[in-house]
Amino acid sequence: MNRDLLSAMVVERLLQAWPKAETLLRHDNCYQLMIAVILSSRTTDAQVNVVTEKLFRRFPDAKSLAEADGEEVEDLIHSVGFYRVKARHIVAAAAALLEKFDGSVPESMEELLMIPGLGRKGANVVLGDCFGKPAIIVDTHFGRVVRRIGLSDSENPAIVEREVKSLIPSADQTDFSMAANLHGRYVCLSRNPRCSECVVQDVCRYFSDRNRSSDDR
DNA sequence: ATCCCGAGGG
DNA sequence: CCCTCTGGAT
C-alpha cells in the first residue's frame, strides 16, 4: 500500500480512537507549557506534573523564574531527572522570554528554537497546543508508532517530521500528533506492543512482519 | 557520539 | 536487574 493511502487510513482511525486529545502536561498558560515541555525531555508527564505544581506556585511568571536561585530550582525539579541541565535551561528560557521576546512566548518555530532547552519537539508542542498551529510532534512514542506502521523509515526526528507532515492535511496534524502519542503509550508499547487491541493492525507493517517471522519457525 | 539523571515497570 | 520515559546541547 502506498503511503498516501496508508496515512489516510491511519489518520482516520487514530483520530477516531483518540479524538482531539490535548497534552497531558498540566499548564494554565503558554509560559507554563513552555517550562513543562522543557522539563518533559526523557521524563514521564506524570513526573513533570508533580514538579510543576510546586514550581509554578513558587515562580508564577517568567520574571520570577528568570531571577530565581539556581540551587532552589534544582531542588524543586530534582525528581524529573537531568535536573542540573534542566534547571539551567528553564531559568535561561525565562530570561530569554524577557530579553528577546518582550516577556511572552514567541509563535514561530525559528524564534522558539532560540530558547534554551527547546528543540523541535518542544517547539512543536508549543506551536500546536498553545497557538493552534499545525504541528507534527515527534517524540519517542510518535516516532516508534509511525515507523512501525510504515509511514517513515527514519530514526532522525527532523526527517520523520518532514515526511509525516507531507502526508497529513494541515488541519489534522496537531490532533494526529497527540493521537499517535497516546496510541504509542497505551497500545503500541515499546516493549510488548498490544497488537491485538490495535485499530490499525490490518495495515501495520510491523504486525505483518511479526507474523511472517513467527510463521517461519 | 556522548552526556545528562531520577523514577517506575516488568 | 534492564528498559523506558513526550530530548536537547555539546
UniProtKB/TrEMBL annotation:
PROSITE patterns: ENDONUCLEASE_III_1. The keyword Ligase does not apply. The keyword Cytoplasm does not apply. It is an enzyme of class 4 (lyase). Belongs to the Nth/MutY family. Its cofactor is [4Fe-4S] cluster. DNA repair enzyme that has both DNA N-glycosylase activity and AP-lyase activity. The DNA N-glycosylase activity releases various damaged pyrimidines from DNA by cleaving the N-glycosidic bond, leaving an AP (apurinic/apyrimidinic) site. The AP-lyase activity cleaves the phosphodiester bond 3' to the AP site by a beta-elimination, leaving a 3'-terminal unsaturated sugar and a product with a terminal 5'-phosphate. Keywords: 4Fe-4S, DNA damage, DNA repair, DNA-binding, Endonuclease, Glycosidase, Hydrolase, Iron, Iron-sulfur, Lyase, Metal-binding, Nuclease. GO terms for biological process: base-excision repair, AP site formation. Its EC number is 4.2.99.18. It catalyses: 2'-deoxyribonucleotide-(2'-deoxyribose 5'-phosphate)-2'-deoxyribonucleotide-DNA = a 3'-end 2'-deoxyribonucleotide-(2,3-dehydro-2,3-deoxyribose 5'-phosphate)-DNA + a 5'-end 5'-phospho-2'-deoxyribonucleoside-DNA + H(+). GO terms for molecular function: 4 iron, 4 sulfur cluster binding; class I DNA-(apurinic or apyrimidinic site) endonuclease activity; DNA binding; DNA N-glycosylase activity; metal ion binding. Transmembrane segments: none annotated. It comes from the Bacteria. This is Endonuclease III. Binds 1 [4Fe-4S] cluster. [4Fe-4S] cluster binds at residues 188, 195, 198, 204. Residues 39-186 form the HhH-GPD domain.
